[in-house]
Amino acid sequence: MAEETLVQINIPKKGVGARRPPWMRVKVRETPEYRDVARLVKELKLNTVCEEARCPNIWECWGEHRTATFMIMGDICTRACRYCDVTSGKPSPLDEEEPANVAKAVSAMGLRHAVITSVDRDDLSDFGARHWVRTIAAIREESPDCAVEVLTPDFGGNAAELMQVLEARPQIYSHNIETVRRLHPKMRSKGDYDRTLAVMRRAHEYRLDAGIPMTTKTGLILGLGETLDEVLEVMDDLRGVGCDVLTMGQYLNPTNRHAPIARFYTPEEFESLKVEGSNRGFKHVESGPLVRSSYHAHEHVTE
């Protein structure tokens, strides 16, 4: 039987954001399914964003849906965004066996929808694009009926490297905008608001030119100090570049060294923002306090 407790998640020892509202609580259910996924990830020496980003939904995704978001190219990022808990520093060389190991995990878990993300690898000449392509190809060979969703970095704005990944034709192409234009310079290390929009525009134009059913998707973190008008501006900008799916969730500072929580959005506010997004033409909006980019990802295929 699963052991179940109610916990308040990601509570820093002191500082801004230590007291969380009641809706920021999750049930911890260490089920046999959860333990099985954890064992598999460990045995194949894989990284997951579920663990690295301390995702509050890990108990549901691993334990109930038997899904995980695999993070390729190591667990050290070359950027240091102020909201992110992934370690920043000098990464290790790429693991050449990783694409095959990810494919083995997807097959062993019997996934019908696999989500892959990565750290930023600005230290590599191709920003890791070829490793991305190899991983997609390995999954397709091992599990040909499995849909592949990729959540990629911006490849330094290099269109040729982005095109390599698009030409591998994932069912969902995702790149997160993360925050509003005004907060980008402060929050995103080496990131750029307009570059993110350009990435999304290229993905949209590629699928139109190729005539393929590829969904485009992005994610927005709320609670970093943005205004409602700024959030609506982001929605308009994203629709302007053909983005199909938008996820919105509450920011939770991993430690006191990260950006503080400016405010908590209520479930009702998230629902209102979902309506705003739907009214603007997004094909799917996933909006809620605990929503993260890959939450209920299998429901986001729109093409």
What characteristics describe this protein?
single chain; 303 residues; alpha/beta; TIM Barrel; 8-stranded mixed beta sheet; two-stranded antiparallel sheet; 34% helix
Would you tell me which CATH topology of the domain at 26-216 applies? TIM Barrel
Range of helix content:
25-40%
Strand order in the largest sheet: 3-4-7-8-9-10-11-12
**Bulk shape:** globular
Structural class: alpha/beta
- Kindly provide the radius of gyration, computed on alpha-carbon positions and rounded to a whole number of angstroms: 18 Å
The overall pLDDT, averaged over residues, is 84
What is the architecture of the domain at 26-216 at the second tier of CATH?
A: Alpha-Beta Barrel
Element pattern in H and E: EEHEHHEEEHEHEHEHHEHEHE
The largest sheet, given as strand count, sense and whether it forms a barrel, is: 8 strands, mixed
Low-confidence runs of at least 5 consecutive residues: 1-18
Write the layout of secondary structure elements.
Blueprint: E1 3-8, E2 25-30, H1 32-43, E3 47-48, H2 49-52, H3 58-63, E4 69-72, E5 76-77, E6 87-88, H4 98-108, E7 113-118, H5 129-142, E8 147-151, H6 159-167, E9 172-174, H7 184-187, H8 193-210, E10 215-222, H9 228-240, E11 245-250, H10 267-279, E12 284-287
Parallel strand pairs: 4-7, 5-6, 7-8, 8-9, 9-10, 10-11, 11-12
Antiparallel strand pairs: 1-2, 3-4
Helix pairs in contact: 4-5, 5-6, 6-8
